[in-house]
Structures are given as structure tokens and as C-alpha cells.
Amino acid sequence: MASKNPLVGVLMGSDSDWQVMERCVNQLKDFGIGCEVRVLSAHRTPDEVHEYASSARRRGLKVLIAGAGMSAALAGVLASKTTLPVIGVPMASGMPSGLDAALSTMQMPPGVPVACMAIGPAGATNAAILAAQILALADATLAGRLEKFKAAQAKKVLEKDAELQKKLSR
Ligand code: RP5
Known about the structure:
Elements: E1 8-12, H1 18-30, E2 35-39, H2 46-56, E3 63-69, H3 74-80, E4 86-91, H4 99-106, E5 115-116, H5 121-135, H6 140-169
Parallel strand pairs: 1-2, 1-3, 3-4, 4-5
Helix pairs in contact: 1-5, 2-3
5-O-phosphono-beta-D-ribofuranose (RP5) is lined by residues 12-14, 16-17, 41, 68-70, 91, 93.
């Protein structure tokens, strides 16, 4: 799957990660950000991962997002072969908590940074928002969409608060 001019590459280590990573892709779409989506594994298809990361900047991509579980190496291996910002999303597909993947994603050695998100669905959504915020540094229209997103999010919480206050005062 690929948009016409993808700015974000969304990768996942297995198609079993798609159910969670779909949230990331949907959030990018909501912001109007073109992306391409691939299943590539740092352990099972290392050559393809290297090739993807090495060519990503040349092909016009600006941010890479990698979802992976268990001994999650995908984000780190991408980061080792590109100067683009890499965002990692740990999947809870190994240890029930996903702690294995979270540690693998966040414990990168100095010199090879990966921005590690929360485990699972929250991380998948946040990866898209962080990618949007990076792209918005040079895109005022996108920055405006992010402002609206944050305002709508705050409005929802305040509405819930008002509802709860009403219930409690009965
Ligand atoms: C990781 O191993 C993948 O990212 C996935 O989360 C996990 C399990 O993969 P499958 O055995 O379901 O293909 O590399």
C-alpha cells in the first residue's frame, strides 16, 4: 500500500502487527499525510530492511515508523542505515506486557537514536502524531491541522468532565 507522494514509511515486522499498526496509518491519513506501508523484518528479511532504510531519504521519505514485537530490532536497524528520524512502536506480541519489545526498541546505543513510543495501540497512534509534528516544522497547513486535533481532543475531555460533574451533582 502506498500513497502518491509518501512522506512517511510505516513498517512492521510481521503482518500480525497490522491490526495495531493500522491505527498509525489511519491517523496519518486523518492528517492528510501520504505514507507507504511495508511488512519487513529485521531478522527474517535483513537485506530488504537495509535496502529500504538506505534508499528511504533518496526516495523522498521524511520519517520512518517501525512497529515490531518480541526482540524488536526493526526500528533500530532502520536507524542504523538512515539519517531520517525513526520512530519505534513496541508490539505486545511476545511477553504479554510487550516489555521485551519496549526495551529492545528504547535501549539503543549512543549514536543510533530511535524515538520509542508507548506499547501497542497508544504507541501506534502517537507515532503518527509525532511524525506529523516533525513534518509540521516545515508545513504550516499541517501545523494548523495539529492545532485543530489538539483542540478537539481537549474539548472531548472537558465534555466528559462536564458530564461527570452533572452525574456527581445528582
Ligand atoms: C516480530 O515478531 C514481529 O514484529 C511480530 O510482532 C512478532 C511475531 O511475528 P509473527 O510470528 O507473528 O510473524 O518480529
